[in-house]
């Protein structure tokens, strides 16, 4: 009996695509609007999309123009119990609806305002639900905070890998050493310092990393995107993500005509900075009006895209991969288990071997050939790079469009109808277990955050001197600030 149970568990663990993953993908595909059910669509075929937290730590200690947080966000106290409890609830619901594996962002205000221990517990809660967490930060914290987060009390790593997305741009105010930057170039030392902390962490403790660099783009800094791309490519970031600003959040910080910056304008500047065309049409997450991305190998100063949309053999290999491997979980899977998964998948579809090998050869050729790749690898100049643009929508359209969707109505107004199409195709969902639903990120930020933050302000008020309680110190003095106050320890947590 015990042997039979063990064999059944082994069969499930080594099955190329977990049945819960298959069910979640099929549901996601069925829910997509027809206009995005294209051969290059990844949602519902390869992934369910990204996920994020909400209402778990709205407060931030920088001021940005624009800022997607509502006016009440900074009036909510940081409370670790509240954070960890709600992260666990949200992730558990995502596991139930969207399967055993997905990428999820620990996002709110500024994540490093959490104590290192609470931050770690939130990440562990996400991992327990099968999520690959990424901490979203402005990057203005010290190495000691990072090590307190990653290492336990005995100095032993509690994570084998950590993922962070650090937001750097000249629209941000209050960063130590760059309170009011006048250009993007002024922030390069801070970008480099942030990434170097993770390089040192790997050297000292063997902890792997995935680093994304985020930048908000407005008319005032759009012409600096090219140089930012060029500069950050020389730093150890794995992803470069750019977000044209939208009219969301605190309207006191809307100081430009954000509509002047288009997804095409940003992508053209990224390509100029990269020094290469960056083909993106071979794959698509959600609606092309919202997202654009490409993945490739950087070899020296060159870039070889994994897929060339103009090469029929690449497209044929893509289709085979999506048909037979889409939904296979590769990350955080023990190598022996992953090996058996791949062998089982190839055994079921032996005709895939030659096309996939052919794809690898073409990528190698685009990279300059094997000799060049090996030469640059010896110099440490070979790495995978992802380029992304996320093009958010204005709250003035999201709010009425969502209200109509909640009533099951399709808008007559062309702009609201377009907004509904994009919301229905959203690749980024947030979990509401109390009401049993998932909502697109633009809806969360435009419609729900302002309501949630009013309630959170009541539940987690900022401490006042009249409270008569000692503030809780949640980070060492060498951290982001000398003392981080969250009010009386664990008061008001839910």
From TrEMBL:
Gene3D superfamilies: Aldolase class I
Stated name of the protein: Radical SAM core domain-containing protein
């Amino acid at each position: 009996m015990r042997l039979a149970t063990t064999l059944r568990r082994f069969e499930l663990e080594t099955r190329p695509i977990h049945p819960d993953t298959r069910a979640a993908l099929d549901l996601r595909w069925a829910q997509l609007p027809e206009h995005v059910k294209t051969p290059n669509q990844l949602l519902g075929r390869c992934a369910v999309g990204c996920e994020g937290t909400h209402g778990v730590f709205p407060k931030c200690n920088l001021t940005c123009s624009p800022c997607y947080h509502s006016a009440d966000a900074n009036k909510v106290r940081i409370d670790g119990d509240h954070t960890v409890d709600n992260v666990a609830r949200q992730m558990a619901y995502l596991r139930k609806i969207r399967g055993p594996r997905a990428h999820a962002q620990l996002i709110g205000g500024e994540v490093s305002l959490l104590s290192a221990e609470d931050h770690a517990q939130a990440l562990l809660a996400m991992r327990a639900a099968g999520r690959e967490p990424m901490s979203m930060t402005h990057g203005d914290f010290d190495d000691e905070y990072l090590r307190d987060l990653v290492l336990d009390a005995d100095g032993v790593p509690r994570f084998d890998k950590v993922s962070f997305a650090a937001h750097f741009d000249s629209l941000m105010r209050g960063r130590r050493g760059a309170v009011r930057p006048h250009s993007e170039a002024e922030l390069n030392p801070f970008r480099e310092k942030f990434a170097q902390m993770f390089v040192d962490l790997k050297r000292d403790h063997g902890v792997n990393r995935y680093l994304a660099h985020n930048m908000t783009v407005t008319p005032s800094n759009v012409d600096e995107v090219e140089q930012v791309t060029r500069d950050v490519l020389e730093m150890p970031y794995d992803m470069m993500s750019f977000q044209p600003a939208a009219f969301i959040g605190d309207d006191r910080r809307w100081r430009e005509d954000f509509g002047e910056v288009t997804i095409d304008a940003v992508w053209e500047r990224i390509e100029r900075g990269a020094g290469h065309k960056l083909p993106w049409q071979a794959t698509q997450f959600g609606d092309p009006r919202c997202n654009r991305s490409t993945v490739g190998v950087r070899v020296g100063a060159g870039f070889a895209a994994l897929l060339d949309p103009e090469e029929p053999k690449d497209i044929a290999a893509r289709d085979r991969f999506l048909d037979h491997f889409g939904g296979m979980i590769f990350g955080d899977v023990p190598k022996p288990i992953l090996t058996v998964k791949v062998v089982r998948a190839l055994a079921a579809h032996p005709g895939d071997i030659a096309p996939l090998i052919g794809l690898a050869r073409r990528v190698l050729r685009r990279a300059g050939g094997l000799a060049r790749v090996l030469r640059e690898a010896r110099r440490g100049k070979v790495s995978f790079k992802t380029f992304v643009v996320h093009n958010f929508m204005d709250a003035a359209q999201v709010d009425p469009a969502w209200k109509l969707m909640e009533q099951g109505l399709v808008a007559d107004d062309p702009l609201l109808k377009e907004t509904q199409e994009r919301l229905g195709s959203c690749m980024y969902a947030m979990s509401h277990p109390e009401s049993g639903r998932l909502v697109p990120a633009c809806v969360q930020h435009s419609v729900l955050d302002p309501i949630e933050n009013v309630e959170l302000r009541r539940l987690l008020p900022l401490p006042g001197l009249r409270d008569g309680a000692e503030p809780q110190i949640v980070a060492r003095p060498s951290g982001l600030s000398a003392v981080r106050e969250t009010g009386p320890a664990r008061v008001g947590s839910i």
